[in-house]
User: Which sequence fits this backbone?
């Protein structure tokens, strides 16, 4: 799937230029590493890349995850229950990381990456990851208790994946990272897809309190117009009485988050978190959207093998 | 036939008893004097990450048939045998105390006589963790 995405990304002219820039940056950074390691061995020398490590975890959680689509609610008890199989592997700078904070579907939210350079207080990675979840209007309608006319007959929206250059900066008990991603949506049954830029940034600050880890986070994400339009825009062939033609603008998402973790035993930990997301106000102009503020909650346990 | 079965059962019972006795003996390693009861609860402190300080409030209890003045010591064998006197009891047959535990290493607790500082009992609190120390620096958000 990712290879397929990559092939299509490479076919785009502007993406070639972006990748060339990434390669240039990579080559320069690698050269810098060699030069530094051969000339110096002081405290400023590069930190060693991740050795072979792996960790497998199972996550079970209750989640309240509203979405921006109009009239779509979590209806059944199991909508609130999520099971995640989380695998982390690293070897010689390559890594596969799953999101250990979020319960998701099997192996959901996995990042595949390579550490271009690792320094004491910053790091540069090349990553491949899914950025936006898709949705199937027909499946949503089947699942909901009440009909949602604005979703009837709407084309499926596939997930968006991207290849990104990630800069991370490390502080004492804090981390800031920013992804510059060339993203592409999957192709739906009509063969429609979109490409665009995503700039995703996040700051997370850890406050340890006794055996608790408490993280406070804030994030800002930019989504290209083509990507926003792919999800909440209405094409001419999708127009109905309940759904006017709509062309979406580019958009932002701001997030505030608090997340806490507590050890229950050598294998189990308790996790809870709250995220407040605020999307650009104009997304409510879409016939598919009725809110731009989401409050998401999670409470669960994590088993570490 | 019957005799060999009996012998087999006897051997099994003997083995089980030996195993049980050796287990009991192992449990009693924490107490140097068999006439003395010394317990520390909980015996394990779990932290999220290897190397982080673990926090707990531990309950220390001891009891012995004869009166004695005792002191409780906390020893970190990994840090050049750093030891700290925590509490002393006047002459008594039993004692109890709540003690704050804060360490990234296993700590040994010893009951020593007030006079002569002779160790009369000891036990250990083990620090364990959910996630082992890793070079990977994670950067996840919740949603």
Assistant:
């Amino acid at each position: 799937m990712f290879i397929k995405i990559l092939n299509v990304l490479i076919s785009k002219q502007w993406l070639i230029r972006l990748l060339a820039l990434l390669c240039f940056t990579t080559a320069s950074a690698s050269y810098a590493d060699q030069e530094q390691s051969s000339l110096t061995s002081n405290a400023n020398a590069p930190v060693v890349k991740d050795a072979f490590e792996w960790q497998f975890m199972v996550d079970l959680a209750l989640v309240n995850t509203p979405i921006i689509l109009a009239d779509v609610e979590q209806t059944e008890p199991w909508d609130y229950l999520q099971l995640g199989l989380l695998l982390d592997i690293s070897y010689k700078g390559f890594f596969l990381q799953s999101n250990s904070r979020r319960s998701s579907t099997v192996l959901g939210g996995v990042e595949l990456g390579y550490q271009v350079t690792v320094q004491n207080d910053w790091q540069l990675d090349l990553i491949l990851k899914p950025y936006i979840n898709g949705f199937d209007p027909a499946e949503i309608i089947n699942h909901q208790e009440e009909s949602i006319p604005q979703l009837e007959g709407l084309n499926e929206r596939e997930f968006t994946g991207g290849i990104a250059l990630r800069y991370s900066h490390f502080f004492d008990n804090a981390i800031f990272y920013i992804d510059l991603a060339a993203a592409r949506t999957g192709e739906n049954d009509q063969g429609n897809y979109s490409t665009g830029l995503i700039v995703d940034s996040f700051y997370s600050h850890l406050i340890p309190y006794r055996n608790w880890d408490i993280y406070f986070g804030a994030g800002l994400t930019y989504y290209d117009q083509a990507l926003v339009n792919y999800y909440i825009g209405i094409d001419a062939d999708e127009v109905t009485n309940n759904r006017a033609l709509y062309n979406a603008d580019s958009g932002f998402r701001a997030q505030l988050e608090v997340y806490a973790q507590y050890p229950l035993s050598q294998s189990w930990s308790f996790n809870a978190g709250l995220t407040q997301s605020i999307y650009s106000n104009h997304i409510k102009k879409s016939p598919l959207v009725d809110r731009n503020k989401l409050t998401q909650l999670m409470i669960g346990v994590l088993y570490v093998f | 036939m019957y005799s060999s079965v009996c012998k087999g059962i006897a051997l099994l019972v003997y083995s089980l008893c030996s195993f049980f006795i050796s287990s009991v003996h192992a449990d009693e390693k924490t107490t140097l004097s068999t006439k003395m009861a010394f317990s520390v609860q909980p015996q394990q402190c779990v932290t999220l990450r290897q190397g982080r300080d673990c926090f707990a409030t531990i309950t220390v209890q001891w009891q012995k048939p004869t009166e004695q003045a005792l002191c409780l010591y906390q020893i970190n064998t990994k840090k050049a045998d750093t030891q700290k006197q925590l509490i002393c009891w006047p002459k008594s047959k039993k004692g109890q105390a709540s003690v704050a535990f804060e360490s990234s290493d296993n700590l040994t607790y010893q009951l020593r006589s007030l006079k002569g500082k002779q160790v009369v009992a000891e036990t250990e609190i083990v620090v364990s963790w959910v996630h082992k120390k890793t070079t990977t620096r994670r950067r996840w958000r919740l949603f």
